[in-house]
């Protein structure tokens, strides 16, 4: 495993009886974008928050390189991990201080983490602004957040995360508050960063079209569990899990012009509340058979690299 691979194993987070994240495993590799999709409440943001250690997991491990991050409670380890794994939020405005210039926002992490000598901070701020496409940098650096557009603010937020030279970036719906015309620019920036900096991305989204456009791999979540995972092209062209099929049929036009949000149907939240054995999707599933109410399906690799949690479409040894 590469020193910068983030490996998540059997990650679980319960909020009392709510199994918000249950037995989730995946790997984020340098230079790859992994999309995490699923309807509202499926647990996507909870996964991201666990990965940046805003939440402590109920169970499971998070390993970066060879260190188990969820267990290592030393302050130094935490500080180092937090600079290596950065989060980009939905609302860039909320994460920027309106009273401070753009320069301040990007210079601060450079200074706090001692990334470059003091004399070189200015130069690095400009370099980072150029990297995210904000030019001329000297002009942008002198501005305040409210003087920029939503797309420009999101680019500032990205530049700030890049300042500490992260190896993993978690982007939780980074474009959902932006105009459609601006979204594509942010997605293209993510593509460029993964190529040029070999960053490992987790891209949380409701939007299957943008997942197809930007991601290499996809994770589909339902009621706290990953129900399907694999290469994005394969999964979206030939989905195994009935839930993935439902998502695709609900979003027939996967064009980039409008954002096709994944619709929410009742039942999911109930399915992750104090769950009994059995498939959490069974109440909504057109293919359900008797065993679906008895035994929780495992994630089974039914095709090369493509796995699903389904007794019918991805039967395991016990199914
Ligand atoms: N701090 C918390 N305390 C209690 N319950 C929580 C907490 N955070 C999240 N939840 C619950 O966990 C479930 C998963 O929430 P999460 O925010 O991860 O979903 P999501 O997939 O990101 O949804 P959305 O698409 O709406 O952002 C929801 O039922 C939510 O209400
Ligand atoms: S395990 Fe059964 S209920 Fe669950 S998705 Fe497969 S067929 Fe449907
Ligand atoms: Mg969320």
Keywords for this entry:
319 residues, Rossmann fold, four-stranded antiparallel sheet, binds adenosine-5'-triphosphate, binds iron/sulfur cluster, binds magnesium ion
Radius of gyration: 20 Å
What is the highest CATH level, the class of the domain at 6-99 and 144-234? Alpha Beta
- Mind telling me the CATH superfamily name of the domain at 6-99 and 144-234? P-loop containing nucleotide triphosphate hydrolases
Low-confidence runs of at least 5 consecutive residues: 255-259
SSE diagram, text form:
Layout: E1 6-15, E2 18-28, E3 33-37, H1 44-51, E4 59-64, E5 67-68, H2 75-84, E6 85-88, H3 102-112, H4 121-131, H5 137-141, H6 150-163, E7 168-172, H7 180-197, E8 200-205, H8 208-214, E9 217-222, E10 225-231, H9 232-237, H10 242-250, H11 268-271, E11 300-303, E12 306-308
Parallel strand pairs: 3-8, 3-9, 6-7, 7-8
Antiparallel strand pairs: 1-2, 1-4, 4-5, 9-10, 10-12, 11-12
């Amino acid at each position: 495993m590469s020193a910068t691979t983030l490996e998540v194993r059997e990650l679980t987070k319960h909020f009392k009886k709510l199994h918000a994240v249950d037995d989730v495993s995946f790997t984020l590799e340098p230079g790859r974008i992994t999309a995490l999709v699923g309807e509202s409440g499926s647990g996507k943001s909870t996964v991201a928050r666990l990965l940046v250690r805003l939440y402590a997991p109920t169970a499971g491990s998070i390993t970066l390189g060879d260190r188990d991050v969820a267990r290592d409670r030393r302050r130094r380890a935490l500080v180092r991990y937090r600079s290596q794994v950065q989060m980009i939020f939905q609302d860039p405005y909320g994460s920027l201080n309106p009273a401070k210039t753009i320069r301040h926002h990007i210079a601060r992490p450079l200074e706090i983490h001692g990334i470059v000598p003091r004399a070189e901070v200015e130069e690095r701020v400009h370099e980072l602004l150029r990297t995210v496409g904000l030019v001329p940098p000297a002009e942008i650096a002198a501005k305040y957040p409210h003087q920029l557009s939503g797309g420009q603010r999101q680019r500032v937020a990205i530049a700030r995360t890049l300042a500490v030279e992260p190896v993993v970036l978690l982007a939780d719906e980074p474009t959902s508050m932006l105009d459609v015309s601006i979204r594509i620019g942010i997605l293209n920036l993510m593509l460029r960063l993964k190529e040029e900096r070999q960053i490992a991305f987790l891209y949380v989204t409701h939007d299957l079209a943008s997942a197809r456009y930007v991601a290499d791999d996809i994770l589909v979540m339902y009621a706290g569990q990953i129900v399907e995972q694999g290469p994005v092209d394969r999964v979206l062209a030939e989905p195994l899990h009935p839930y993935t099929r439902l998502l695709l049929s609900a979003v027939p036009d996967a064009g980039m012009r409008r954002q096709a949000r994944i619709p929410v149907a009742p039942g999911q939240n109930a399915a992750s509340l104090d769950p009994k054995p059995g498939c959490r999707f069974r109440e909504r599933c057109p293919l359900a058979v008797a065993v679906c109410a008895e035994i929780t399906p495992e994630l089974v690799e039914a095709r090369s690299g493509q796995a699903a949690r389904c007794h019918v479409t991805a039967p395991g040894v016990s199914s």
